[in-house]
Amino acid sequence: MTFKEAVDSGKYLVTCEIGPPKGANIEPALEEAEHLRGRVDGINVTDIQAAAMRFGSMATCALLRQRGFEPIMQMVCRDRNRLALQSDLLSAYALGVQNVLCLTGDHTTLGDHPGAKPVYDLDSVSLLAAARGLMEGRDLAGNELDGAPDLFLGAIVTPGADPLEPQILKLRKKVDAGARFIQTQAVYDVEQFARFMDQVKDLEVPILAGIVLLKSAGMARYMNANVAGVFVPDTLIAEMSEAGKADKAAKARGERGGNQVKAGIAIAARLIRELRDTCRGVHIMPLGWDKHVPAVLEAAGL
To answer: Is the pTM higher than 0.90?
Structure first.
């Protein structure tokens, strides 16, 4: 079924994410997607993630579509004005890409072209409104279209933000503007996420909790220091740290480790199980560990 049909069916949703390459060799990214075949309801494709120049999201989504996957095209406002954003939405639809996750986008100073000029003509809320307008047969200037696209729009939220109120306010604006599904930033604190969900329980839109696979204790500490709204508890850092020590000991003995991989899978699966009754699904961000996603889902009972 399509992602929209999966959402409308009321089933527990699972989406995952892949990142296009920095170059023209798209085959490895498409091979990553094969690990997800038959296991997820949709595959997000990042759009110049972290402001680092990469192969395009739209083209990647079109190639995934040709291979029988259900892609979710991420679209950021950082790099295009309202003309280009609307044009790309129409183009994506013509290529068979209907699912669109609307994002404002990280600033260019964070990426590998810090001198690039950011656009931000629209933000995520106004992009959603523009896309909805296209679906209703008109552009942002009020001009009538010759054929309207049928898009399925989504947005994001950071449930661990402090303060949380601005996130909830903007989330409500996104839903009012046309968002039909929500994916969240990484969740590691189940109780905190439950409190967030209690504050938005009136919203009639599926929310998918974000699951970022931990690769090491160092990665967890980095996210705590640099990723706004994400906090990995000390208990999980300690768990990854012990796995890292075991891997170092195994390497010293000339043996293969794999303890950090096992710990990352176990933590992700545990979080999914604990979140299962709180939301409509999960959005897994494997950050290159796509081949381990099936093991996560199996361990989580999905």
So the answer is: yes
**C-alpha angle with apex 97: 21 to 142, nearest 5 degrees?**
115
Confidence (pLDDT) at 257? 82
Q: What is the pLDDT of residue 79?
A: 96
How far is it, in rounded angstroms, from Cα 286 to Cα 100?
Answer: 20
Q: Which of 26, 24, 22, 2 is nearest to 13 (CA)?
A: 2
Radius of gyration over every alpha carbon of the chain, rounded to an integer in angstroms: 19
**Closest of 264, 222, 224 to residue 243, by C-alpha:** 264
Could you report the per-residue pLDDT of 243-280, keeping only the tens digit for each? Answer: 999 989 988 989 888 999 999 999 999 999 999 999 99
The tokens for 23 are: 């170059």
Domain boundaries, the chain: 3-300
pLDDT band at 136 (very low <50, low <70, confident <90, very high): very high
The stretches of 11-81 forming alpha helices (DSSP H) are 27-34, 57-66
Cβ–Cβ < 8 Å for 186, 269: no
Q: Quote the tokens at residue 196.
A: 């967030």
Compute the distance between CA of residue 91 and CA of residue 219 in angstroms, rounded to an integer: 37
Pick the CATH number of 3-300 from 3.20.20.220, 3.40.50.10330, 3.10.20.310, 3.20.190.10: 3.20.20.220
Q: Which string of DSSP letters, residue by residue, matches 159-207? A: TT-SS-HHHHHHHHHHHHHT--EEEEEE---HHHHHHHHHHTTT--S-E
Residue 208 β-bridge partners? 183, 281
pLDDT of residue 230: 92
One-letter identity of residue 105: G
- Using DSSP's 3-state secondary structure scheme, residue 88 falls into helix
According to DSSP, the residues that pair with 211 across neighbouring strands are 284
The secondary structure of residue 58, as a DSSP letter, is H
DSSP string, 76-111: ESTT--HHHHHHHHHHHHHTT--EEEEE----GGGS
End-to-end CA distance of the chain: give it in Å, rounded: 17
Indicate the length of the chain as a whole number.
Answer: 302
